[in-house]
C-alpha cells in the first residue's frame, strides 16, 4: 500500500479507472484517504462513468414516486441502500402541491416530472427536470404559442378523462451528451402529442433553453379510426433510438435522436401468429457493436408457457434476424408481466404474486427477478408488497459517493 500511495494523483487515477466495477471502486476508495480523494474528484468520476455503464440499483414506481432498492445478495445492494437513504424520491423540493407532480421519465440521474398547468390542459403541462440526490431542479419554459398552435385536440395518452394524472402528451428525456464538457451537463427533452391524422413533436435543449419543432411523419397508422384515438404503447430505447408500439396496430413509431427524425415501421411479419395484447410484450436492448436486440414475449400460448424470441438488427430499417428463443420457467407462465429493462446479459422481469395466494394479503407481492440469458440463472432483484403496481422503471445509477450533480 505504501508504494501505491507514493504515486501521483494522475497515476492513482490511471490505476483506479481500471477497476472492473463501480462496487470495486467504492471498496477501493474506502481503503484510504488518498484513494478516496482521487476517486471522488469530478474529473475522475466523469472519466470512470464514461467507461462503465451505471448498474441497476433498484426499481422506481412513478405512481407514488417510490424507489425500491436491490435486495441482498445482489452486488449493487449496498449502493442501492445508500441511494435510498440519500436521495429525495418524494421530490419535496418541487413547488407544492407535491401530489400534483407526476414522474414521466428518468435518465442519467435526472428525473422528468410534470403537472397540470393552471389552465387545466393535460397536454401543455408545467415541466421540471430534477436531480433527487442533490435536490436540484430546473423548471422548463412553456412551449411558445406559435408552436403550440399546431396541437389540435390531442388524444389522451395516460390516465382517465378527469384524473389528476391524465396526460395528452408523451414527454421524456433524450440521451445525454458526453461527460467531458464541464460541470454543467446538457440535456434534451422531447414532447409529443398524437392528434387526428398527425403527430406533433417538439424538442427542448438545456443549452439554448428553447423549444423547436421536429418533423414527424404523416401516416395512416396515426389516423383516427377508433373512438379511443391513437395511443402510444411502452417507450423503449436503444442506441439513441426510441420505439413505441402504436396501440392496436403492428407498427412501430421510431425516433432517431441522433438525427431527430421519425419513422413508422411495419413489424407484422415478425409478430405473425402471436397474440400481442400489451405493448410491453416487446422490449429493446442494446447489444454489442451497435446492434439492437428486440425481445418479443409470446405469452398467450396453449401450453401456458412464456417464450422469449430474440431478434437483432444494426439499423431499425434492416430485416430482423432471429438469434434464439428461451422458454421461461413453467411456474412463471401465469405470473409474467413483462420485462422492465436489461443490464449486460440479464433481463429484469416483473412477476405477479402466485395465483393460489390471491386471498392472502401477506402474499400479494410483486417480485422483480433477473434472468441471465446465457447461463439461465435466476435471482430475486427486489420485491414490493402491493397487488396494484402498473408502470415501473429499472433504475440504473451509481452510489452517492460516486455521483455528480446531473443538472
Please give the order of strands in the largest beta sheet: 3-4-5-6
Q: Please state the oligomeric state of the protein chains shown.
A: single chain
Number of helices: 8
Number of strands: 23
The helix/strand class is mainly beta
Could you report the average pLDDT, rounded to the nearest whole number? 85
Strand content: 25-35%
Helix content: 10-25%
How can the largest sheet be summarized?
4 strands, antiparallel
Shape: globular
Gyration radius (Cα, Å) is 22 Å
Explain what this protein looks like in three dimensions:
Helix content is 14%, strand content 34%. It has helices at residues 2-5, 9-16, 22-29, 33-39, 42-51, 77-86, 145-148, 268-271, and strands spanning 56-61, 66-69, 102-107, 110-115, 126-131, 136-139, 170-173, 188-195, 198-205, 210-213, 232-238, 241-246, 251-256, 261-266, 282-286, 292-298, 307-313, 321-327, 336-343, 346-351, 366-372, 378-384, 393-396. The chain has a four-stranded antiparallel β-sheet with strand order 3-4-5-6, with no helix packed on it. Helix 2 crosses helix 4 and helix 3 (22-29) packs across helix 4 (33-39). The longest helix is centred in the first third of the chain and has 10 residues, at 42-51.
Amino acid at each position: 500500500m505504501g508504494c501505491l500511495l507514493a504515486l501521483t494523483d494522475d497515476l492513482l487515477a490511471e490505476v483506479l479507472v481500471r477497476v472492473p466495477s463501480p462496487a470495486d471502486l467504492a471498496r477501493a476508495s474506502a481503503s484510504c484517504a488518498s484513494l478516496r480523494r482521487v476517486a471522488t474528484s469530478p474529473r475522475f468520476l466523469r472519466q470512470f462513468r464514461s467507461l462503465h455503464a451505471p448498474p441497476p440499483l433498484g426499481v422506481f414506481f412513478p405512481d407514488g414516486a417510490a424507489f425500491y432498492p436491490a435486495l441482498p445478495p445482489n452486488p449493487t445492494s449496498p449502493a442501492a441502500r445508500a441511494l435510498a437513504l440519500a436521495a429525495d424520491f418524494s421530490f419535496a423540493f418541487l413547488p407544492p402541491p407535491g401530489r400534483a407532480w407526476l414522474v414521466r421519465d428518468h435518465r442519467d440521474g435526472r428525473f422528468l416530472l410534470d403537472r397540470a398547468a393552471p389552465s387545466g390542459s393535460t397536454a401543455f403541462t408545467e415541466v421540471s427536470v430534477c436531480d433527487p440526490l442533490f435536490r436540484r431542479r430546473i423548471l422548463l419554459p412553456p412551449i411558445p404559442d406559435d408552436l403550440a398552435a399546431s396541437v389540435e385536440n390531442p388524444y389522451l395518452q395516460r390516465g382517465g378523462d378527469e384524473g389528476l394524472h391524465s396526460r395528452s402528451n408523451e414527454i421524456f428525456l433524450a440521451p445525454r451528451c458526453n461527460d467531458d464538457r464541464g460541470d454543467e451537463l446538457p440535456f434534451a427533452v422531447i414532447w409529443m402529442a398524437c392528434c387526428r391524422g398527425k403527430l406533433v413533436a417538439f424538442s427542448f435543449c438545456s443549452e439554448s433553453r428553447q423549444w423547436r419543432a421536429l418533423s414527424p411523419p404523416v401516416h395512416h397508422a396515426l389516423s383516427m379510426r377508433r373512438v379511443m384515438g391513437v395511443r402510444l404503447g411502452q417507450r423503449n430505447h436503444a442506441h439513441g433510438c426510441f420505439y413505441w408500439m402504436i396501440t392496436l396496430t403492428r407498427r412501430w413509431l421510431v425516433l432517431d435522436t441522433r438525427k431527430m427524425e421519425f419513422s413508422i415501421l411495419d413489424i407484422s411479419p415478425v409478430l405473425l401468429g402471436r397474440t400481442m395484447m400489451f405493448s410491453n410484450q416487446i422490449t429493446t436492448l442494446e447489444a454489442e457493436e451497435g446492434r439492437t436486440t428486440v425481445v418479443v414475449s409470446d405469452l398467450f400460448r396453449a401450453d401456458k408457457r412464456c417464450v422469449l424470441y430474440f431478434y437483432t438488427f444494426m439499423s431499425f430499417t434492416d430485416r430482423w434476424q432471429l438469434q434464439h428463443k428461451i422458454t421461461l420457467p413453467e411456474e412463471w407462465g401465469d405470473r409474467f408481466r413483462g420485462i422492465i429493462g436489461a443490464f449486460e446479459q440479464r433481463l429484469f422481469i416483473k412477476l405477479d404474486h402466485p395465483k393460489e395466494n390471491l386471498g392472502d394479503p401477506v402474499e400479494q407481492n410483486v417480485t422483480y427477478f433477473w434472468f441471465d440469458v446465457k447461463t439461465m440463472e435466476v435471482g430475486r432483484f427486489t420485491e414490493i408488497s402491493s397487488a396494484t403496481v402498473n408502470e415501473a422503471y429499472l433504475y440504473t445509477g451509481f452510489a452517492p459517493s460516486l455521483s455528480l450533480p446531473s443538472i
